[in-house]
Design a protein that fits this description.
The protein is about 55% helix and about 5% strand. The protein has five helices and two strands; from the N terminus they run ααααββα. Strand 1 and strand 2 form a beta hairpin. Helix 1 packs parallel to helix 5, helix 2 runs parallel beside helix 4 and helix 2 packs antiparallel against helix 5. It starts with a helix and ends in a 5-residue tail after the last helix. The relative contact order is 0.23.
Length: about 170
């Protein structure tokens, strides 16, 4: 049986979790490492936490749009921010999460997103979603944004480790 677009996207989102786990494991007790001014850039764990919290925000966007169905676990049931300031506040834990918290949140959110979308048809992926920071796009575009955003932050986290001489 052929893999559907939704299944392929769900698998990439699940792989993001494995990537976050690998970079945090490589960082070890240096997960707070930064390259540059700590007041201006995210740490290794901050990058992973940013993926988790942004994905959570975007999951709430998809739920609010009716693009995905099903009940969210209690840990993910939060009011969807309705302004940019509220969305930025929603992302605030990225600056304070421990490595364990960042990874646990990433696992929870990404597993929820993947399980929610993997069975969708191609037509369902066209459902419009008002995506925080991006405006109205299709659910497919939202899923690609999740993958691209995660790749960016994983790359930044690995770059910090390489710059600090922690990873090769």
């Amino acid at each position: 049986m052929a893999t559907t677009m939704a299944q392929a996207l769900a698998e990439r989102i699940r792989n993001q979790t494995a990537g976050g786990e690998k970079v945090l494991k490589a960082a070890g007790d240096q997960s707070g490492a930064v390259f540059g001014n700590p007041q201006e850039v995210l740490s290794v764990r901050g990058n992973i936490s940013d993926i988790a919290h942004t994905n959570h925000l975007w999951l709430l966007d998809a739920v609010a749009a009716g693009a995905v169905q099903g009940e969210l676990p209690a840990a993910l049931r939060r009011p969807r921010p309705t302004s940019i300031d509220a969305a930025v506040a929603f992302l605030a834990p990225r600056d304070t999460d421990s490595a364990e918290q960042a990874l646990a949140q990433l696992r929870l959110v990404n597993n929820q997103i993947a399980s929610t979308v993997e069975g969708l048809s191609d037509a369902a992926l066209d459902h419009p979603v008002d995506i925080t920071f991006y405006g109205s796009k299709s659910l497919r575009d939202l899923l690609f944004a999740i993958i691209e955003h995660g790749s960016l932050h994983l790359g930044q986290a690995w770059g910090i480790l390489k710059g600090k001489g922690i990873a090769s």
